[in-house]
Amino acid sequence: MTTGLRFPLVCFDLDGTLVDDTVYIWTTLHEGFGTDAAARQRAHDDFFAQRITYREWLAHDFQLLRAAGATRDSMLAFIDRLKPMRGAFETLRELRRRGHRIAIVSGSLDIVVTRLFGDFPFDHVLINRIDFDDDGHITGGEHTPYDVQNKAAGLHELCRREGIAPSQAVFVGDNENDLWIAEAAGRSIAFNCKSDRLAQLATYVVTEKDLRQVLPLIE
Ligand SMILES: [Mg+2]
Fold first, then answer.
1. pTM of the predicted protein model
2. Cα–Cα distance for residue pair 140/61, rounded to 1 Å
3. What's the rounded Cα separation, in Å, for the pair 123 and 113?
4. 129 Cβ partners below 8 Å, 6+ apart?
5. Which helix or strand (DSSP H or E) is residue 116 part of?
6. What is the rounded distance in angstroms from the CA atom of residue 198 to the CA atom of residue 182?
7. What are 13-52's pLDDT values in tens digits?
8. What's the gap in Å between 135 CA and the centre of ligand 1?
9. How high is the pLDDT of residue 172?
10. What is the pLDDT of residue 1?
């Protein structure tokens, strides 16, 4: 990178950070479609006890949503109830104007990004992909290797692609699944924060729910 910026790369979490009205899109969708809550909890526990892989957890989630009748259109209807975070577009455009590279590292779903930020040219998006057939039924997808603890590996991967050190990356996120990536980044900003641990670990905590408040912290 020859931009001369101290932090050439800015990575954002998606749910609760760039997107408002949801903590995790998975919770929003599962509650919205009324999927089997016990089965969902079991898979969650199995993943965190390392009895199943992340890929198996994702496949299980897709299966539950499919069984509850979720389709492309009905999922998009739930996503349409969410809004980009206040100040999100202004923040992204300003970072772009300053010459930063901009990334999303998230365990959410690609259709949330395309639906709410379709026009914005992110430089990197590391996220789960969901696939549908021509009738809009879920056929599967591709898991991100970079969720929870592995979000930090996602940041390292993006720094490698950009030819910079992790100390030259900023991360902005809101919750427990961001602890590892926040620790890996040179500067971290807890925004719209629901995690005491993240607030303690982050370089800065932004309490006003307007994403533009992170801009002075990324000079
Ligand atoms: Mg989040």
1. 0.96
2. 10
3. 13
4. 109, 110, 141, 142, 144
5. helix 110-117
6. 8
7. 999 999 999 999 999 999 999 999 999 999 999 999 999 9
8. 31
9. 98
10. 47
The DSSP secondary-structure symbol of 122 reads -
Cα 128 to averaged position of ligand 1 atoms, centre (Å): 14
Structure tokens given for 54: 């992340």
- In the chain, what are the domain boundaries? 9-20+84-218, 26-79
CB 117 within 8 A of CB 18: yes
User: Looking at residue 94, what is its pLDDT?
Assistant: 98
User: Separation of 94 CA from ligand 1 center, angstroms?
Assistant: 22
Tell me which residue of 156, 147, 76, 146 sits closest to 116, measured CA to CA.
Answer: 76
Position 198 scores a pLDDT of 98
How far apart are the CA of 134 and the centre of ligand 1, in A?
31
User: How far is ligand 1, taken at its centre, from the CA of residue 108, in Å?
Assistant: 8
Q: Say how many Å lie between the CA of residue 193 and the centre of ligand 1.
A: 9
Residue whose C-alpha is closest to residue 91's, from 159, 204, 191? 191
pLDDT in tens, 54-103: 999 999 999 999 999 999 999 999 999 999 999 999 999 999 999 999 99
* pLDDT of residue 119 exceeding 90: no
Token pair recorded at residue 69? 């009748």
CA distance 150 to 86: 28
- Strand pairing of 138-142 and 169-173? unpaired
Task: Give the architecture (CATH level 2) of 9-20+84-218.
Answer: 3-Layer(aba) Sandwich (3.40)
Q: What is the mean pLDDT of the chain?
A: 96
